[in-house]
Amino acid sequence: MSMDNDGIDEVVEGQFRVLLTAASQAGEALARAIEQRRREATADSTREAAELRSRLDAELETARASLSATNNPQWWAQASAQEISEMYKTARGWAAEHPELAEAEERMRTEVGHRFGVTIENLTATGAEQQRARAEQAEAASLTRAAEAAEQREDQSEAQREHESVPAVREELRADALAHAAEAGALRVRAEPAYDSAERREATARGLTEAGHSQRQVAAVMRADVAQARPASQAVSGRPDRKPAQARKGRTQAAEQQRSSLGR
Question: Where does this protein have compositionally biased stretches of type Low complexity (predicted)?
Answer without folding.
Answer: 138-147
